[in-house]
Write a structure and sequence with these properties.
Number of strands: 8
Largest sheet: 8 strands, antiparallel
Helix content: 25-40%
Shape: globular
Strand content: 25-35%
Number of domains: 1
Distance between the termini: 23 Å
């Protein structure tokens, strides 16, 4: 992937939440509704979906033509999930840096809204939504890990884990040795 022969465009990043804080789901819907009605020159949003009735489901999300942002509860682990749906510009490394910055920016907005969102940055879960171009195999995972190490190099030492099930999308969870705040990540990959 370092040679950018495959374009890393459809990718998710989940920043997990502190599970000692209870999420105010209705408050999240209100925040997303505010985003939906805000100036379209800032962000373009199309709709909101509330799946809180589904245990361990997608939670509440705001949907845009290029991205979705949600408070996700899949696998019983709450997190701010940013799901990129349209192409980025730049190299794969620059795309990953942009993904981290954008995800953290939305996480900060949710933290500031006082809806029970408190992000932990000891784990960053990356999932590629392109099974054909990025199969969940050792070779592709190693290439993604190399790009993530380059993209997040200034964050210090990283360790990685992966669900190797070939039925799953390509995924890596990055563990920074020294977790940073969402605000640190929102300002761009730390220097």
């Amino acid at each position: 992937m370092n040679n950018d022969t495959l374009s890393l465009d459809r990718i998710d990043l989940k920043l997990f939440l502190d599970d000692s804080v209870e999420v105010d789901w209705e408050g999240c819907v209100q925040v997303f509704t505010h985003w939906l009605k805000a100036d379209p020159d800032e962000e373009e949003w199309l709709d909101i979906a509330d799946y809180t009735h589904m245990p361990q489901g997608p939670g509440v999300l705001v949907i845009g033509p290029e991205k979705h942002v949600s408070i996700d509860d899949r696998r019983g682990e709450l997190g701010v999930l940013y799901s990129r749906r349209e192409p980025f510009s730049g190299t794969n490394i620059e795309r990953l840096q942009q993904l981290v910055s954008e995800t953290a920016r939305f996480a900060c907005l949710l933290e500031e809204a006082d809806v029970g969102v408190k992000v932990k940055t000891d784990r960053l879960e990356f999932v590629v939504n392109d099974r054909l171009g990025f199969p969940n195999d050792a070779e592709t995972a190693a290439a993604l890990e190399a790009d993530l190490r380059a993209a997040l190099a200034s964050a210090g030492e990283l360790s990685f884990e992966r669900d190797e099930d070939p039925g799953q999308r390509l995924n890596l969870i990055a563990h920074p040795a020294e977790p940073l705040t969402a605000a640190d990540w929102a300002d761009g990959v730390p220097e």
